[in-house]
Amino acid sequence: MFVLSEMKHVVRIPPHKFHMNLNDAIYEELNKKLANKVVLGVGLVVALRDLKKLEDSYVFPGDGASHTKVNFRCVVFRPFMEEILVGKIRSSSREGVMVTLGFFEDILIPPLSLQYPSRFDEVEQVWVWEYQPDGEQDDSEKHNLFMDPGESIRFRVTSEAFADTTPGLPDITADGTAASVVPTTQASTSSETAEPEPKVPYSLTGTINEPGLGLLSWWSS
Q1: Domain spanning 84-219: CATH 2.40.50.140
Q2: What does R_g of the chain's alpha carbons equal in angstroms?
Q3: pLDDT tens digits for 135-179?
């Protein structure tokens, strides 16, 4: 679930931190910049682990800060595929069951990855596994097992997705000029009708459609 990832970065130390030990100042700046942030293609950075190598520091004209190229290692949250994790149900919708690990919440178990057969209860807004004991053919013997929010759930990671959330640049036309700006009235009307969906920088997809997975209470004696 957690891995060590080695990175490189040029750390800028402002003048008001020159009284600090250089390593301490770099630790502070790197943690401020990376802790609890998603690095594209790497994962969710939890904390700085250690500094591997510091190169010479430079002060550039017009900038009183020092700049130091640093090799360092970070503790990163990035489960491997097929890893089994335990979290808690955060919410449910027709799109599936959302799971939280406490520090990470962008985990979805889609409907096709739930125990079969499952249905979505519109009134309770939860998914229900219509469990039927082996050998029983009568529908009256079905047990409705509700996947309520807050319940502990065991799932298998099946895929991950990264998204670049950096602000987009203006569209450029073929002649190299910026595209024309939409008039204010038209732009305001468009924004009211179609709000762009916020991107999730890092998300996981899981499954519980196999024995032993799902709510922990289902399998406890």
Answers
A1: yes
A2: 25
A3: 555 555 678 999 999 999 999 999 999 988 777 644 443 444 444
Between CA 50 and CA 5 the distance in angstroms is 11
The residues, ordered by sequence, that sit 6+ positions from 129 with a Cβ below 8 Å of its Cβ are 114, 115, 117, 118, 144, 145, 147, 214, 218
Q: What is the pLDDT of residues 23-55, one digit of tens each?
A: 999 999 999 999 999 999 999 999 999 999 999
Residues 6+ apart with CB under 8 A from 105: 90, 98, 99
Per-domain residue ranges for the chain?
A: 2-77, 84-219
Give the H or E element holding residue 89. strand 84-93
HEC readout, 70-83: EEEEEEEECCCCCC
Tell me which fold the domain 2-77 belongs to.
Answer: Dna Ligase; domain 1 (3.30.1490)
Query: How many other CB atoms are found less than 10 A from the CB of residue 85?
Result: 17
CA atoms within 13 A on the CB side of 200: 11
Say what the pLDDT of residue 219 is. Answer: 87
Long-range contacts of 53-56 (CB under 8 A, 24+ apart): 54/22, 54/23, 54/26
Question: pTM to 2 decimals?
Answer: 0.79
End-to-end CA distance of the chain: 28
